[in-house]
Design goal:
By secondary structure, the protein is α+β, with helices and mostly antiparallel strands. It is 31% helix and 37% strand. Strands 1-2-3-4-5-6-8-7 form an 8-stranded mixed β-sheet. The longest helix is centred in the middle third of the chain and has 15 residues.
């Protein structure tokens, strides 16, 4: 049975490592692209490379929610709890909208709350972490509005468009989140 969370304007369809295995090993390329909401060959190659490189390890896993706009049926983005350390009851949150036309409409705020709730209630997380570029003002505003606390800076932590940047570290504990 497919897990789907629902908000006012979105369906949040859960995909796990097992889902990706099914999609990449048993779906036709066309059906896999449709399921994943991929519309370019470049995006297909990127997703397939990630899958073939291994999505999990013996220590970590993930839960990815595809954001499906109810009114159009389009996948407009993703919100995932990844780098999920089962032993330590913590995961990193990542999110993004795919097209500029869907930004600044409150979709991510609408989606992130039930995903966080799922993490704390269903995945039994105690902590959710966010690593955000100091220049990503919309993302910083989003996590602060939910109650994430700034915990520090990781210098030269990730590469974006060929440039190594710092990350601001934010954390949210289960006891701080209003379930």
């Amino acid at each position: 049975m497919q897990t789907v969370l629902e908000t006012e304007r979105l369906w949040l369809r859960l995909s796990t490592p097992e889902t990706y295995k099914e999609v990449f090993e048993h779906y036709t390329e066309e059906d896999a692209k449709r399921y994943l909401g991929i519309d370019t060959d470049e995006a297909w190659t990127e997703q397939k490379t990630k899958y073939e490189g291994g999505l999990t390890t013996f220590r970590t896993s993930f839960a990815c929610f595809h954001l499906i706009e109810k009114s159009s049926g389009r996948i407009i983005g993703d919100c995932s709890l990844h780098t999920w350390y089962l032993l330590h009851s913590r995961a990193e949150i990542g999110y993004g909208l795919r097209k500029e036309e869907d930004k600044n409409k409150g979709f991510m705020k609408e989606a992130i709350l039930p995903v966080i709730r799922y993490g704390f209630e269903t995945m039994d997380l105690n902590r959710i972490e966010a690593f955000i570029s100091p220049w990503n003002i919309p993302s910083l505003k989003l996590v602060k509005s939910i109650g994430f606390k700034e915990e520090g800076r990781l210098r030269e932590h990730y590469r974006k468009d060929g440039i190594i940047e710092d990350s601001l570290v934010y954390g949210l504990l289960r006891k701080e989140f209003k379930l």
